[in-house]
Amino acid sequence: RFGLIGHDWGTRALYDTAILAPDRITAAVALSLGWRPAGSGSGGLSWAQRQAFWYQWYLGTEHGAAAFRSDPKGFCRRLWDTWSPPGWFEEEAWERASAAFSGTDWCDVVIHYYRARWGQAPNDPSYKSDFEAVAAAKAIAVPTMIIHGVADTCCLPELSADCASFFPAGFALEMLEGVGHFPQRENPEAVASRA
To answer: Is the pTM of this model over 0.85?
Structure first.
């Protein structure tokens, strides 16, 4: 048994793992994203959240995918610059992180991830039963804390609000003032002390 902590894509993986193997997990800390049972695609999102997810749907178009492939570093810099309050990262940290964006299959993985998320590309059929179990889940049976930045303009704080009833094994929500989408980088002390 072990505890899990995840951010953004890692939070989605954390929730899926908690659904598929709750007996293996002692507790979970989810950064920047709440959870609700699968619904009808984007139907449950506010218009403000739909606007914040522009990049996900842009990558679902051929024009968007081509623009992303032509300048992945510029694309991601725009996200880093707008998802959190100004000045949250040092240029050196950006350079280290952005080195990952030059991987040979990185663009394809990102594009497929978002297309599959919104039903525009198939999931890996090897995991069909797992995808079905996750889609059918009505609750997360693992004690979970969500840590969310109040100033997150990617996954708006509303995504973590009002989801306590979906965590019957225990739930806590910690909202961090002045913190955007990357709480573990913007205020690592607060995240570590709460986790």
So the answer is: yes
